[in-house]
């Protein structure tokens, strides 16, 4: 087959093509590398300069000098998107910092009013690619740009997951209850996202969490209900106690466990019996959640239940029971009974917890 | 034509075809990786992984660090790892029967004392001699066990851990402070994620302090410089492209995040192999495909781990032999996956590719080093075809290595100056004249000594990370 081509020509051609590709690659690499270096140098210097100028503004002795520094900063930033973004990040940090006093915060507000970083993000929201829009959604929410709410609502339905997720987070910051309820309910059909995203949406939510959760519960499956209850448990909202108690009757162990956790966090003595019953559930996930939840209750009945749970067949139940017991048994009577008892596994669990100082650990 | 000449004739044809096919596939990987890295860069504004650094909703994670004779680096590494940017994590150091001062140095440095412990044995391991702790470092646990190999140490770490995700780390590597956060974010981004691998970079020449890259200097030895180029090529061109098709067969043992229950359900790390990093991932592919469970194994080039590359040819030989043996071991164990549509893209493309090009590529290339000059000598090959073959082989290597450097620039990591990057191009060229051939021979040696060295790790000299 090679006889069809002149081998000399083929070889020279091949060498030529290969050399050409290599040379072109080298040129491309050089351009990229120098551009990258220049880019880093430019923007590292820009960040330093912006910090310097902001400092001059914050500590300007007079209003006139502050205004002239703001003008100078404006000229420096110009229309450069990276400088504007850096400025925005710095000013937002200053506004939310505890170390800035009211005069400094007023100065930062003046910078924002004059240089209008929000306009920059609104433009990005309208004209950027999907990822720039995603970023702009979050920034618009931080600046509380209500005018962009309709746009962000539309973007939350985007097929681009990053965009939809960031838009949802933005709506959460806005406290847009109606749309957020729809979004959370839509996750029923979309198991791709981790459930932690729903928890994150709830933790960023600035509206009325009780109202949000109530509306979600009206029309959602047990999976969503479980996640929302997980998200609510840290807030210890008494409004949902009935829902938690109903959840204890569920056949879904995850929902039961979430309700148990939530009731445990509330820690009312009247739930003690229900948690003790749950500590004997057939499912180890439920038992484990129950013994963990009992750590806020202090009665002898609870301690006896926990002692019994240290003899459970499931490691997680034993371990969590040991942690709870060590935490609540201040005179260590029950703890000693486990240590001196016949169950080596229970004894090991309690010893481990004691050595790791869980009774003293702030994390507990 | 005599039989030998006939064989030589057909082998030449085969070599040419093989090289062309390999060139095509490598260039395809390069292009796919380029598109992916560019896309990932564009995606960066939308990536809010840093928002999770203070979040209670990030899954807590166990950092597992198996250590065997790591006295030089272990204390420094533990100190660096304790500064990891992650809201809730535990650091489990597993001393796998070290015979040097590893144990003593760790105990002394952190004033650890032996404690009673309870452990959920999900995977059987060698005997644990003791568990050590100090309340001053509440998230540090030190496990001292009998020597059983890295896999066994990792299994012990898995048993010890209480969190749903674990990171597998090498004792002589340093991860960047946000690396774990970046990989953990993959598990939030998509709940099907079971494994996330990070980028491993050669630390030789770099100054890494407290988990932060400070500066880069091109290392003094040529063998280290060649490895820098090689790692860019392998990770940025190879793994990025396979990660996109969810058929990545290996996540570096130096740095990977795993869903603990998935690894336990797949039987944990296999102990009778020295390629545990590839074996666990291939095993996960096999088991989850058989269970028809949807899953995702991803590669994230922004999550960086720095590792020390071998500083001598002797150590490099030991390492590459081991890698080849490990790969061979895994591919043989899972041979039922080859061209088996039950295993999807992994079975139809990734496994056969690894067999044909990564595994058998070394002996074919080595054979070519003998046969092709012999053909020239015997007059079976004209000088022009010899030059053609030689040009293609060398050019492919250079193009790929340059491609790796270009991809490194595209990640915009900014860890090398332009001058340093262009200096490395010399090594991208030079590696084709000696270094690559040595690597091929080391790999062939590994295959020939497969049976005898299957469970032998060898020893590589280390030095302390630059400060």
What is the C-level CATH assignment of the domain at 268-364 in chain A?
Mainly Alpha
Q: Tell how many strands the DSSP assignment of chain B holds.
A: 12
Oligomer: heterodimer
How do the helices and strands follow one another from N- to C-terminus of chain B? Answer: HEHEHEEEHEEHEEEHEHHEHHHHHH
Q: Largest interface, by Cβ-Cβ below 8 angstroms: which chains and how many residues each?
A: A-B, 62 and 52 residues
β-strand percent of chain A reads under 5%
List the strand order in the largest sheet of chain B.
3-4-5-2-1-6-11-8-12-7
Helical stretch tally of chain B:
14
Shape of chain A: extended
Q: Could you tell me the mean pLDDT of chain B?
A: 90
The secondary structure category of chain A is: mainly alpha
Q: Largest sheet of chain A at a glance?
A: none
Helicity of chain B, as a percent range: 40-55%
What is the overall number of helices of chain A?
Answer: 20
**SS-derived structural category of chain B:** alpha/beta
- The radius of gyration computed from the alpha-carbon positions of chain A, rounded to a whole number of angstroms, is 30 Å
By CATH, the topology of the domain at 268-364 in chain A is Leucine-rich Repeat Variant
Radius of gyration of chain B: 23 Å
The H-level CATH homologous superfamily of the domain at 268-364 in chain A, spelled out, is Leucine-rich Repeat Variant
Overall residue-averaged pLDDT value of chain A: 90
CATH architecture of the domain at 268-364 in chain A: Alpha Horseshoe
